[in-house]
Amino acid sequence: MSLSDIQRSRYQRMCEMRAFDEACMEALKRKAIHGELHIGIGQEAVGAAMAESLRAQDAVVSTHRNHFHALAKGVDPLKLLAEICEREAGLCKGRGGHMHPFCPETHFSATGIVGASLPVALGYAHAFRMRGDEAVAVGISGDGASHTGGFHESMVMAGAAKLPLVVLVENNSLAISVSFSDVSPTATVAERASAYSALGLHVDGTDPDVVSEVFGQAMDHARSGNGPVIVEATCHRFRGHFEGDPEHYRDRTERNRVRSSYDPLILYRNKLCAELGDGVAAELDALQKSTVSKTKAMLAEVLAMPMPDPAGALDYIFTDEVSE
Ligand SMILES: Cc1ncc(C[n+]2csc(CCOP(=O)(O)OP(=O)(O)O)c2C)c(N)n1
After folding, report:
1. For residue 284, what is the domain's CATH number?
2. What is the dihedral of CA 140, 143, 147, 149, to 10 degrees?
3. Residue 309 lies in a domain
4. How far is ligand 1, taken at its centre, from the CA of residue 174, in Å?
5. Local confidence band at 1 (pLDDT 50, 70, 90 cut-offs)
6. Could you tell me if residue 314 is inside a domain?
7. Ligand 1: residues whose CB is within 6 Å?
8. Whose CA is nearest to atom 17 of ligand 1?
């Protein structure tokens, strides 16, 4: 049996996301990125799956760990990588960097302020309702951000006004060094949804098939005027909180256990081989290989791009006009 289009595209998206973050790690090594870099490797299944249910008019507001969400929303990977590498040709002319990429054309934005993506997503959801648009706002949160006031206030307002808001919580069980189970008043974030008159869905975030089905259900629910949804995807962060994090809170044995047990690319490859036969392995491997080499070529292109002119350091800070 052969791969279906959807299986191929889910695997390909995950490969693209992994290769993208590996390129970022390489760029950091080459000193093309300054400041903290938050890598999403291990969480590819969530981003890959959400891409399928997002429409052009929907908005996504992400976090400090935002690369996969930007790719899922259709942000141009070359412009995104150029932004992360602080180039003039980047999404925000190199002024936003890795934590603050903005793309008005695709309605994608992100913030490095933990918990702040939800109030912004709430604003989008209000605007969609006022304009009568059939669009959904997706606010992304980590498990740590689910404990902030902004998360709570946004959910209260979205629930009261039945706004088209989907909150995607990537629960990787760590907020830097703080374990979710040590601080959370509930075993899951999803079960808090009923307190906000919202729908709560919990899903295994390592399997793109499962995430896709559940995220699609959440988007349909919100798009049909049924109010907000919390989708919580359990996933695993393979790298440190940021690149260079000494990870004193987990030892090498634990890190290796997580990587060898929950790699979404390996798990999905194994699943497809078990379902369709080992014959599909060669196609999957070729796909991964060509994705890696295309991404390496993209990084080379970005690194050859010019940096912003220091004389323009104060450009784009103040504006006299507010556009629509
Ligand atoms: C308001 C605010 N407080 C603290 C920080 C520092 N900080 C950056 S990321 C982070 C933890 C976020 O954890 P989580 O929401 O679980 O996301 P993850 O890093 O696991 O993706 C913290 C405390 C910040 N950026 N903003």
Report:
1. 3.40.50.970
2. -10
3. no
4. 10
5. confident
6. no
7. 64-65, 112-114, 142-145, 172, 174-176, 237, 241
8. 142
Average pLDDT over residues 228-235: 98
pLDDT one-digit tens code per residue, 254-275: 999 999 999 999 999 999 999 9
**H helical segments located in the chain:** 5-29, 44-53, 67-72, 77-84, 117-131, 149-161, 180-183, 208-223, 252-262, 264-276, 280-303
Cα 3 to averaged position of ligand 1 atoms, centre (Å): 38
The reply to whether 317 falls in a domain is: no
Give the residue from 6, 277, 29 showing the smallest Cα distance to 21: 29
Atom of ligand 1 nearest to the CA of 65: 21
| Domain count along the chain | 1
d(CA 22, CA 158): 37
Any domain includes 323? no
What are 39-50's pLDDT values in tens digits? 999 999 999 999
DSSP 144: T
Range of the domain at 107: 5-301
Question: For residue 175, which atom of ligand 1 is closest to its CA?
Answer: 13
Report pTM: 0.97
Atom 3 of ligand 1, residue of closest alpha carbon = 114
